[in-house]
Design a protein that fits this description.
The protein has about 250 residues and is an alpha/beta fold. It has eleven helices and nine strands.
Length: about 250
């Protein structure tokens, strides 16, 4: 991944939401990462619920370039960023950091958070928003224990995912040490807490959306209620995820 230069990115790129991270430096910043291939209403609902239910000043959307823990995205970095801008446009508490998209190297969460921490300082509370399925896989991530030194983790329920009694032993040890009942822990310290937040999950799959779009017009009609209208229009206009595209 390329060096993280948040101010440089924000100054040289369009500012769809107009919030200066440094202006809210003492408030809690939520981080929502992913390939967003494509960004869908499940992502948007999660971000909105996080802002409503957690003490967050804003949600920082972080589209990944070539993620180290999963297959490479189908859509280009340019198209994924364009769709994300359309999905978040006009929301005063959304920000997009596109630094990951500028690198061809695999992106890992520990590197992302390390660079954010260097930019924003040791005292800035950071909250990594993770689905329960991703949280369960945490011990397979690069230098995963260091994540707790860099951010809090809020675990969001996913359909069919059970946490209690299913945690891998190394993760269960961190769970017992770090679990907090109150979201006030997110303000009290810069990092280190685990919070389980009862945000209503939306069972929307980007891979299922891509597969549907690969079927052509009928598939596009089927996903109409799963994507922001502007995002679907962009996909149709640019013929993304068409039958010739690998939709795995």
């Amino acid at each position: 991944m390329s060096d993280f230069k948040l101010n440089a990115v924000n100054q040289s790129s369009p500012k769809p939401n107009g919030v200066n991270l440094n202006a809210v430096n003492r408030n809690v910043i939520g981080i929502l990462g992913g390939t967003f291939d494509p960004v869908h209403l499940g992502h948007v609902a999660l971000a909105e619920a996080a802002l409503a239910q957690l003490p967050l000043a804003e949600v920082l959307w972080m589209p990944s370039g070539s993620p180290g823990h999963r297959a490479s995205p189908v859509a280009s970095a340019h198209d994924r960023l364009a769709m994300l801008r359309l999905a978040t446009e006009g929301h005063p508490r959304y920000r997009i950091d596109a630094a990951e998209l500028e690198s061809s190297e695999p992106t890992y969460t520990v590197h992302t958070l390390t660079r954010l921490r260097a930019q924003l300082g040791k005292a800035q509370p950071l909250v990594l928003l993770l689905g329960a399925d991703s949280f369960l896989s945490l011990p397979t991530w690069l230098r995963w224990r260091e994540l707790f030194d860099l951010a809090h983790i809020v675990v969001v329920a996913r359909p069919g995912t059970v946490l209690e009694g299913t945690l891998p032993a190394p993760l269960a040890a961190e769970w017992s040490r770090r679990l907090h009942d109150s979201t006030s822990a997110l303000r009290a310290t810069p990092a280190g807490a685990i919070i389980v937040q009862p945000i209503t999950p939306h069972d929307v799959s980007a891979s299922a959306i891509r597969a549907a779009l690969a079927r052509g017009a009928a598939g596009a009609a089927a996903v109409r209620g799963l994507l922001p209208p502007a995002v679907l229009a962009y996909i149709e206009r640019n013929r993304l995820y068409q039958p010739h595209t690998d939709a795995t």
